[in-house]
Structures are given as structure tokens and as C-alpha cells.
Amino acid sequence: KARMMDFEVSMIFEDDARLFDRESSLTFCDAKQRKSRVWSSLPEDALIAFLGGHSWQYPEIGEGNGVANSFVPSKPVQFLETTFSYGTYGFAVPRKSLDLLLETINGDLAHGFVDENGLTQTEFLSPERSWYRIAPYLDK
Fold it and tell me: Which of 25, 40, 49, 83 has the fewest other C-beta atoms within 10 Å?
């Protein structure tokens, strides 16, 4: 359905996801404010934006690796590159990434996903792990 609607960014949430406070809800649930305050800050090369989760890991900030500390306290919404997380409550998928990410989910459903030890898991899904696995091949 998201592909047919052709939005710039499609959002997918767990069935029990909720925003933390009323102010965030008013901003995030208003399409115009969401576009101007949130998606306008999404980096053009983003594969996906995770909306919540656990155990965030970030690349080392260092010389020559292209990673910079991009946290700016005055910006209302910020996106940081991550190298690992799990348990996302939702994710935002830019239009250009939608087909690839759906193909990854369908592949995981059909064949299982490869975990961090190289083992194929078929008892549960972990789309984040699959997306983190394919991101380096896409220069993300």
C-alpha cells in the first residue's frame, strides 16, 4: 500500500507504539509539521530512520572515516548514523529505499535471516539486523 501511495517517506509502527508526550504527538501527527520539522532533516542518503529502539551503537568518530559528531542541541530533530540497534518501535522509509527494504523482509520471511554469527535464523524475524547487514553493501 505504501508503494501505491507514493509518499516521500512511509512510516511503519508496531501495533503498540506510542509517542512520549502531547507536544511530540501534536508535531509528529500533523503532516505539514512532520514534513517541515522532521523529514526535512532526514539526510538524502538515508536508507531508513529507526523510530525508537534499544542498544544503540554508533560508529567511532575519527579522522578519515567520514563520521562526524552531528549532534546540534538547537535542532529539534536530529538523525545520527548507527551501526546496531534492535527492538525498533517503528521506522521511516524513504521512497527510494522502500522496494529494497520490502525485498529484504520478504527474503527473511521465506528463508530466514543471517544473524551476527553468520547463522540463518528461521524461528523469528529481525529486520533491523538484516538492514544493518545490507547497509554497508549500499555504502550506507
Answer: 40
